[in-house]
Amino acid sequence: MNTEKPYILHAISPTKFVSPFDVNMAYDSGFDKVSTYTNVEMDDINDLVQDIVFSRHPNDCKKTGLFIAGEDDEKAIEMMEKAKKAMVPPFEISIFADPAGSFTTAAAMIGCVKKLLKGKFKTDLKDKVLQIVGAKGIVGGACAVIAAQEGAKVGMVIHREGAIEPIEKRIKNYKEKYKVNLNAIMGISDDEKTKMSENADIILCAAKAGAEALLKKHFSSAKNLKIVSDVNAVPPPGVEGLEVNFNGDAIRGTKIYGIGALAVGQIKAQVQHKLLKLMCESGKPVFLDFREAFKIAEQLKK
Predict the structure, then answer these.
(1) Domain end (from 80, 97, 114)
(2) Contact at 8 Å (CB) between 134 and 213?
(3) CB within 8 A of 225, min separation 6: which ones?
(4) pLDDT tens, 108-123?
(5) The dihedral of CA 290, 176, 160, 125: what is its sign?
């Protein structure tokens, strides 16, 4: 009879389902069992976590993990902090927050950009002007924090009507929580997008899939623009001329290098796999979010 205790991942989400992508990744990374919980509210966290930790011997807590999904980065981080406080040493488990894959995607995107900067321009993100289109979304938000922590001058671009208040609120929250300097940049009209591009060294597009957020004409006077990256894999691309399989390829008719969704997605999957695997293999609890994801992405892109 096999008395070895299984590796169990408890995946929670405040939304109506946990993504099958995350479930598959968990099994492929070493977990024997994955249990999902949906429509989880903040007030549920304490009881859920204590049921998880107290049902196993402290030694077996090392084989137990909590994955936080959903569609809200700030809520995921708050759930993570609440879960950490609910544990009673030595009854402690590892936690990994990656709502809608946003943290690992953002880490992969910045990792790809940093690698290309070094390879093509012998430089890094420090003091580079980096504009993010789609900054209201959770991928764009995580990109903003990572890039700012790397020393970039980050602009969160308002490219749709109704996005001013949400982006300004996000900037305020990020400044308070992560001590980073971020700015709101207008980018709704063609003229605003052109002006936004003029001073940029890097533009990241994390806008809603299925629509072109930027056209090549918006880069016509962009003298410093080196790299544009897009995470949209659904046609048409978020940036005109930037194909999903670009990985440092020049965008036709420009001197700008492009990084497409497939190049970012390949690194994202590897980052998520390594972090889930770390939960299984670590001899002590680990707490993982976009910051740890970026460390892994950097290692993969060396």
Answers:
(1) 97
(2) yes
(3) 197, 200, 201, 202, 203, 219, 256
(4) 999 999 999 999 999 9
(5) negative
In a domain, 25, yes or no: yes
Q: Is residue 211 scored above 90 in pLDDT? A: no
CATH number at residue 73: 3.40.50.10280
Length of the chain: 302
Decide which of 300 and 101 is more confident.
Answer: 101
The range of the structural domain enclosing residue 32 comes to 8-97
Look at residue 183 in the predicted model and tell me its pLDDT.
96
Tell me the torsion sign for CA atoms 254, 260, 263, 267: positive
- Is 295 among the domain residues? no
67 and 137 both lie in a single domain: no
Structure tokens that stand for 89 in this block: 């040493």
Between β-strands 182-186 and 94-97, what pairing exists: parallel, antiparallel or unpaired? unpaired
pLDDT at residue 1, rounded to an integer: 41
Q: Residue 161's pLDDT is what?
A: 84
**What average pLDDT does range 194-215 have in this prediction?**
93
Question: Is 205 within 8 Å of 228 (Cβ atoms)?
Answer: yes
CATH code for position 171: 3.40.50.720
| Beta strand residue intervals within the chain, DSSP E | 8-12, 33-37, 64-68, 94-97, 129-133, 153-158, 182-186, 202-205, 227-230, 247-250, 257-259, 287-288
Inform me whether the pLDDT recorded for 2 exceeds 80: no
